[in-house]
Amino acid sequence: MPVLITKSSVGESSMGSYFLGVDPSATSTGLTIISSEGCVSTHLIKPKRLRDCQRLQYISAELKKFIGSKNITLCVYESPSYGSVHKEFILGEVLGVIKLTLTELGIPLVGVAPTQLKKYFTSRGTASKEDMMTQAMELGCPIRQEDICDSYAAAHLCRDILEGPLLKTRASREVRMVLAKNAHVPEVSIKSTSA
After folding, report:
1. pLDDT, tens digit, for every residue of 61-71?
2. Mapping DSSP to helix (H, G, I), strand (E, B) and coil, where does residue 41 land?
3. How many domains does the chain have?
């Protein structure tokens, strides 16, 4: 039986803009939504024993359920790292179904390499999982779990692209500027990157 872990901030509304961060995985996909008001919702998709098409259907359904009727302005997802020791084909399927689901929902998305997400969030592209979790908790992530913390970093970057700068480091500004050029968001102006 699949496991669901969800945490929401008090006072979350269904109106306004929302920014989605995704840390894709075949076994534990982290999702975070941050509202323009700063409310945070997180969800961990754990398909457990589901395999192949059943796993992909489950991930898509859970993603849709988590988003609900929220007006997601942009999604930033962590791209797979080259040379990783994970099962590339399975991760490719998972990322593919996430991208397809979001595209069908009309949500613009942009991928960020793991090293760039770490650089944005901690100022070091070689940051450890512990460094990422520590920074996420300091910035308000409600759950100390590595997939949730990575998705929180992606959602934070997502919001930063459109409303930032939120993090005021040189490294975060560099990553933000590059991704802002790749974020094709209709009818939304990307804030100036000068800080």
Report:
1. 999 999 999 99
2. strand
3. 1
